[in-house]
């Protein structure tokens, strides 16, 4: 009987120790969750200041424009398919094989042959020719400047269905009036891009130093 009594008391003490340990573990877990919850939310919630698709594509067009050698006007363009993939990119520049250092970049001269206008390939043309897919039917063209009538013809002929632009410098000039007419008659929509992000900065020094 004495042994049974001692065994019972030992079992009761063990039970109390387990209950106390369980309470301490529960308190510890609660404190941990309280501390880690903000960090968890920070890790598990997506950024809210990421670029929209529209800003991303127009930014890509402006990045392409930075490749242009034209001292007066830099134009960039990207073509995007229905799955939001960039399938073509281009900027205004001389045709392949022509030296940028030897060709004229001026806007005016006594002879038209000595100006850039008879030689430069527009950004939209280069983006269409630089495509990495078989066809552009149904795609959207993002361009930093509204396309001229010659580029509008290529847009229509390639099957592009939408044009998004940011700059419309000369809306009343005949080539741009004609461009709007061509696009409208062909059923190609066009609209000005309204940025959601007002400013984008790429600081390579900070990136290289892992400061951002």
UniProtKB/TrEMBL annotation:
Record Pfam families: dCMP_cyt_deam_1 (PF00383)
GO cellular component: cytoplasm
InterPro entries: APOBEC/CMP_deaminase_Zn-bd, CMP_dCMP_dom, Cytidine_deaminase-like, dCMP_deaminase-rel, Deoxycytidylate_deaminase_dom
Domain of life: Eukaryota
Catalytic activity: dCMP + H2O + H(+) = dUMP + NH4(+)
Record-annotated CMP/dCMP-type deaminase domain positions: 52-180
Keywords carried by this UniProt record: Hydrolase, Metal-binding, Nucleotide biosynthesis, Zinc
EC class name: hydrolase
Molecular function GO terms recorded: dCMP deaminase activity; zinc ion binding
Biological process annotations from GO: nucleotide biosynthetic process
Cofactor: Zn(2+)
EC numbers: 3.5.4.12
Role summary: Supplies the nucleotide substrate for thymidylate synthetase.
Protein family according to the UniProt entry: Belongs to the cytidine and deoxycytidylate deaminase family.
Descriptive protein name: Probable deoxycytidylate deaminase
Organism in which the protein naturally occurs: Amblyomma cajennense
